[in-house]
Amino acid sequence: MRASLLTKLVAAYLVPTLALLVFAPLLGWAIARRSLEEEVGKRLVGSAGAAAATLKGDLLLTLQPGDDGNRTHRNVLAKLEAMRAAGNVRRLYVVDRDRKMLAGTGEVPPVGEPLPELERDRVEIERAFSGGSVSSSVTFKGLDGRTYKSGYAPVSDSEGKVVAVVGADASAEFFEVLREFGASMVGLAVAFGLLGLGVFYAVGYHWLLGPIRRLRGAAERIGRGDLESPVPLSGDDELGVLAEGMERMRGRLQSRERELQMMLAGIAHEVRNPLGGIELFAGLLAEELEGDEEKRSHVRKVQRELGHLKRVVEEFLGFARDPRLAKESMDARELLDELSDLVRGDADAKDVILVIDAESVRLEGDRATLRRALLNLARNAIQAAPQGGHVWLRARTVGESVVLAVEDDGPGVPQAERAKLFTPFFTTKQKGLGLGLAFVRRIAEAHGGSAGLRPGEGGAVFEVKLPGKAA
Asked: What is the pTM of this model?
């Protein structure tokens, strides 16, 4: 299935735009989160550093397991609590090099016990013991289910050796808010992008595809030989320029067609007049040769050839002449009855049986040209049928179309000749111009239909498919 021009434009331009609308909020969210995380990390490192400045490393080294609640421990807790309140952080705590608790506010293990959640920040803590202040690279969920982030600062003894690290935890709940905000922005971007896509498609369907469909229709009409209907113009854009070019082309083709018609009319006039004269004098000669049967037989041969030549001229002119259709609503069965009457004599001469098999369906078309086209098919079928054979004249509906068919029980059409049957001037007959089937197809296409061959069982079926009309 071919994609329309509008679909290709949507794929080429709007899909990347929609992707940009989706990824832009995601990128903005990532940048905002990173900036806020860095800012929170700096604040936590500052709080941890301020607390570390109030503590003495030598006293911290004296704390041992079981010292919870002694004077040194209470003094350290008091300082940590004061700094926690001043820095507005969740908790402050001090750990040794083995990440075991020395003192801490909030829910912390006893002195000498490890703090399990510090395993996630062991790299950052090692850096703090190297003398630097650092914030954690990841956030974590507390026991209360909220998101937190940590900062670390070293505590030195009197000799300047780092003996402990102060950790500061603070809520990073705004990260969740930011994540939800980012998700909402992505959702809004997708919604507005899809809305814009729908609006663009709806507008483009009328503004872009409308003129293209009209140009396509005009091109199809020209292809069918309709040079009378003008090409609809559609503005000053590229499509308008294309429409103007097609209209100029149609005008030139129409002029060329009219010139050809005038030339053919002149040829017909110049050929018909001598033929009429020859026919007249041949008749007079036949009268003068009354009684001389041998010479009269030669004259009759001349007269037969003249008749054949006249039919060739008429057939050629009929094919070359632009069909003028006077459409009317008609019953397909009635049309086939008329056709049967016209070929009855030819059929009786070969004892061919004519069978009409037609549904009561209506179609719209030019009765005279359709009858002439079907007459070509019927005569061909009678010629192809064997002595005493059958020819079927059929009419049926296929979807919204009416199919008129002429079928015979002759030898059929060889496979090698089927592709050329409707080509002008192709014929398998000794005498014939090869325009009969080409004329049938031209009339069918002029009616907005088609003509073709459908091989039958032991014969051939020629079909003319036309637009139907409700009864």
From this structure: 0.46
